[in-house]
Amino acid sequence: MDKLHEMWENFQLNEEEGAAIDIEEEGIPKVLRKGDRSLISKIWSDRQIGKNIVETTMAKVWRLSKPAIFTKMGKNIFIITFATHADKNRVMSGRPRFFDGQMFVMKAFDGYTPLNKMSFDDVVLWVQFHNLPLFGMSRECGERLGSSLGVVEEVEVDGDDVGWSRFLRVKILLNLKKPLARGWTITLQGLKTWIPIQYEKLLRFCLQCGRIVHEEKGCTVPILMETSNRQFGSWLRAEPGGQRFRGSSQTWNSSLTKSSPKEKGKATMGW
Ligand SMILES: [Zn+2]
């Protein structure tokens, strides 16, 4: 299809072919009624995923009021139509989603962009910035650090815009095709500090080039490093269930019950 598209761009159109047909009023409300309950999705996998397997699997995983209907639109690209808006919103808000460990990118319905022009290269992940000085744990600092990785959607802070914790958590729209940043160097009063970055729910990524979009066996980047000198590793994955230890009593208590004895000791001393 892409090749055909390139051919058309070189065509010399006759008068009839070149006269634009205005489709502005043609059936848009009907499509929108369906589109409003739909998401456009892509599973980032090298192998072809069948419509039936993904439909059946996700019906079990999502536990919707009624199973969603999948329409195959290309290699691993599906439009997912939900029975209700509530089902759609619940699935959308649970990003990132995965299918068999592969990134399952979902986008809001867009009736204007042809599918071959649509990008599925972005994914929303919670990112943790570790080792920050206390002055660095603010909404503003989170936005500054996060925007150097992608588009910031949310910074996890308290009502006073301060996010004191073991790390600052920022929800960011990241480009899957860019290597994962391993950390940033910050300066505060002239003092340089290395801020390690960890990514939550980072299942599969390429240990060779640090991109989420493929695994090592699908990597096309030339092998430059010996395995013993890898620049990327599983240490980029945040520990599952990374709660913040914040000052509010509810969060504090629930965190304490889940923390290790060592962390408990530290926390008690902190109070
Ligand atoms: Zn790679």
From TrEMBL:
Where in this chain does the record put each DUF4283 domain?
37-108
Composition skew (Polar residues), residue ranges: 246-259
Pfam families, A to Z? DUF4283, zf-CCHC_4
Renumbered residue ranges of the record's region Disordered? 242-271
Organism per entry: Juglans regia
Q: Name all Zinc knuckle CX2CX4HX4C domain ranges.
A: 189-220
Indicate, by first and last residue, each region the UniProt record lists as having compositional bias (Basic and acidic residues): 260-271
Q: Which InterPro entries match?
A: At4g02000-like, DUF4283, Zn_knuckle_CX2CX4HX4C
The name under which this protein is listed is Uncharacterized protein LOC118347656
Print the organism lineage. Eukaryota, Viridiplantae, Streptophyta, Embryophyta, Tracheophyta
Q: Which domain of life is it from?
A: Eukaryota
